[in-house]
Amino acid sequence: MNHAIIYDCDGTLIDSEHIAGSVCAAALTSIGIPTTVEAFNSRFTGVPAAKTWEILRAEIPFALPEGFNDAINAEIHRRFDEELLPIPGVAEAVEAIGGLRAVASSTNLPRLRINMEKTGLSRLFDPHIYSATQVARGKPSPDVFLFAASQIGVDPAHAIVIEDSVAGVTAGLRAGMRVIGFHGASNGIADLDARLRAAGAALVVDSMAQLPGAVEALRRA
Length: 221
Fold this sequence. Notes:
Blueprint: E1 4-7, H1 17-30, H2 37-44, H3 49-59, H4 68-83, H5 90-97, E2 100-105, H6 109-118, H7 122-125, E3 129-131, H8 143-152, E4 159-163, H9 166-174, E5 178-182, H10 192-199, E6 203-205, H11 211-220
Parallel strand pairs: 1-2, 1-4, 2-3, 4-5, 5-6
C-alpha cells in the first residue's frame, strides 16, 4: 500500500507570499484602492492568480490600467529572482519524512519550476511538480491534488497534504486526503493557525522542525 505526502509550494516550501502580496498591495494602493499586505494575503493566499484578479476586476468600479497585471507579474518575478528563499528547514523536513511525494501548487508550471530550482528544492521532487494550470479547476477545488496523486500512483485516502491556506486545506479535504496546516511563512496573516484549524486541518505546525513528527502522528491516528 503506497502512502504519500503532497506539498503545496508557496508559503509551504518557499517563502514567497510576503513578496507577491506586497507587490499586489502596493499596485492596488497606487490606483486608489488602499490595501495592506496582510489584507491581501488574508483574502487571497492559496487562490490562483487568475481567479484573484477575476474577483478583483468584478469588484473594482473602473477598468484597470493597461498593462497593470503584466507590470505586477514582472515586479513579482524580479523580486523573486532577488529575494526568494526556501522556508527554513524545509529540505531537512522533506528528507526526514521521505517516501513518495509531490508538489501541487496554484502557481503556473513554468514559474513553479523556476521557483523550485532557485530555492534548491527541485532535486527533492522532480519529476513530480504539478500546477493547477494543468487541471480544470484551481484550489479550493481538489483537482490539482487528485492529479498529483494519480501521477505518483497513490490512493487519495493514503495521501497527506501539507498546506498553508484555507483554500488549500479545503482542496485537500475535498480530494479525500488528510491535511496538515503550516503557518511558519512570513505572509503576515496573524490568525492563520485558527483559520487552518477551522478549515479542517487535522494538525497545524508553525515550523518545519515539527513537520516530521506531525506526519508520523497523523499516519498513526
